[in-house]
Amino acid sequence: MIISPLEHAHDFQKIFGLTRLATTIDKAEAALGTLEPETIDYCKCVIEIICKHILSERGIPYDDLKLPKLVKLA
Asked: Rounded to an integer, what distance in angstroms lies between the CA atom of residue 6 and that of residue 4?
């Protein structure tokens, strides 16, 4: 059975019901299936949405942070 590389993102989306995340995951999987150049950008967006949600839940400000710092803080 092949598991999507975004399987954990799907799980996170199901738990928290983030509509924007669901949409971005769908776009990332479609782009991955056709190897579109935007695939990496969509995957970065998935990570960013998840990190921002985690930081919001913890009450940690994240304005103007680049992706590596978002990941580290989350």
From this structure: 5
